[in-house]
Amino acid sequence: MPTTRxxxxxxxxxxxxxxxxxxxxxxxxxxxxxxxxxKDIYWAEKALTKSLPKLMxxxxxxxxxxxxxxxxxxxxxxxxxxxxxxxxxxxxAQAKKCDAMEGLIKEAESVVEETEDGxxxxxxxxxxxxxxxxxxxxxTYGTLVQFANTLGLDEAAGILEQTLEEEKQTDQTLTEVxxxxxxxxxxxxxxxxxxxxxxx
Length: 200
Ligand SMILES: [Fe+2]
Known about the structure:
The protein is mainly α. It has helices at residues 2-18, 29-58, 62-88, 99-113, 120-150, 154-188.
């Protein structure tokens, strides 16, 4: 019934205005979600500071090695930035295991295992794995920036935006490295005969 509905709508509206508004409200469900997502990406970035150096060692092309080296430095800075965001929220920097990143890192390790040392094919595989990581991070930081904006946490949004831009740039750099020569060289490398039926 329309009358009942408008009554309950009024009630809801009243309830909403009673909630604290704007920056640092600290207790909305969105802020909790934001905080949980921060813990998740904090774990992910820290895990990457350990796994990226291993991937770099397994790469062959200097161009790829140096792209990964640059991103290792950025990742360390991104960890520090997340700590700043925790501080702005007046929360302890805490990591919560990110299942998605754990899976992506495992996938990167198996790409290395399944390709031969010193080949362009391995480099192409490492780039593929790294770009999957970047896309996951772009999705995460994109959302975190939006959440921070909605919560009125402008400073946090600005910090997260910097990382978002770095992840996008890294993704683009990796595409360029792949397209410059690695993918083409990998295409010239012959498959070993006994591997052909492996996936059947
Ligand atoms: Fe990152």
